[in-house]
Amino acid sequence: MPVMSKFVNSAAIIAAAFAAQAAAHTYVKEFEAGGKTYAGFYAADKSGGDDSSPAWRTDQGWGFQPVMGDAINTPDIIAHMNAEPSPFTAPVDAGSDVKFTWQHDGECKGEEVGWDCSHHGWTATWLAPCNGDCANVNKEELSFFKIHQAGLIDYPAGTRYTEGGDTADTGYWGTDDIFYKNGNTQTVTIPKDLPSGNYVLRTEVASVHNNGAVSERQFWPQALNIAIQNGNDNAQVPAGIKATEIYSSSDPQLTFDLYNHEAGVTFDAPGPAVASIAGGSGSSSGGDSTTPVVEDSTPSSAPVVEESASTPVAAAPTVTSTHVAYVTATATAAPSSEASYVAAPAPTPTPEADSGDYQEGEEEDGENYEDDGEYDGEEEGTEDGQYDWSHAAYNDGEPHAWGGEHTHWRRHAREFKA
């Protein structure tokens, strides 16, 4: 990757990030596992007790809201808001693929629903042994190990991810791979060297398009129950981490400035590295290493797989697990699985925009947010009720960091997009 000697800093990019906020909310619409297609959480939640989806039930609610960054160390980060395990389980062979389809319709700069091309972030997928029936598991005690990740990947020349596009120099991320290359799908492989048994499969996408405090980062975690069959019962379950401990407010990925950073910076998703049984190094770059305790994954009574006789367990391997530091293009780095990265310099803070940029500026064709009929309904202020979740995320409707009340900066972001 060529070294570039500039910093990304564009008010236009920031304006684009506020476009279609309500549209840019997603969820796992469906997933394929063990040769069968299951509904995601929304259909499972709405279709009644006869639905056999193993997707966890949540209160993600209208608009498929994200978990905000101020909740990264709360139970909501495990599998979304007030998530509860499904009573059902999907059988999956060790070594086979699980394919997630995320909700998203439309094209970039068009009318998008389910995601928006101003949003960029990582994706990561994790497994945690239930040590019994996943339907009754205590979600806060689950210990997850990472089996897949994609963070800030590259800066492909001549694309909207680099200089000259609508989202100049944001870089190409794991979420871009899902929503704009792979048709809203994400495929992960269940490691073949795992003991058979019941596991929670957790996947998520995240976005860092809202610059500022970590509390404004957005996360969409989803979970489902699987029963791994035909596994290696002499294998070890990798050491894991509680989902409430994956993120730290000091993680460089969470404090990363999408619009004002040294060009060429790349990094993985936050948290421990991909487990060695899933093709990773089992360790992260930088930091102190730890020797984790390997957990017993022998299931009790899985509803869709037969119990296998207990087998001797090999001695636990020593692996390391720390948070991943991001790197610059000037570093000479080994592949990510065995990386010895050099941390990038601290990003230069984004200058505060002039409040006039996003308040009562020029209006296009005489339209404005309050009277264009698209959002406000019968009486003034109706749109505030429709987007009240956004007010909670953006300082309760007080003047935003970019200037102006919620309705003003949303209007101008929408005009920019149009």
Automatic annotation (TrEMBL):
Q: Which cofactor does it need?
A: Cu(2+)
Amino acid composition bias (Acidic residues), ranges on this chain: 354-386
**Span list, region Disordered:** 276-314, 332-406
**InterPro entries assigned:** AA9, AA9_LPMO
Which Pfam families does this entry report, sorted A to Z? AA9
UniProt keyword DNA damage present: no
Where it sits in the cell: the answer is: Secreted
List, as start-end ranges, the regions of compositional bias called Low complexity. Answer: 304-314, 332-353
Alphabetically ordered keywords of this record: Disulfide bond, Secreted, Signal
For bias kind Basic and acidic residues, which ranges apply?
Answer: 397-406
Which region is the signal sequence?
1-24
Q: Where is the Auxiliary Activity family 9 catalytic domain?
A: 25-261
One Gene Ontology cellular component annotation?
extracellular region
Q: What is this protein called?
A: Auxiliary Activity family 9 catalytic domain-containing protein
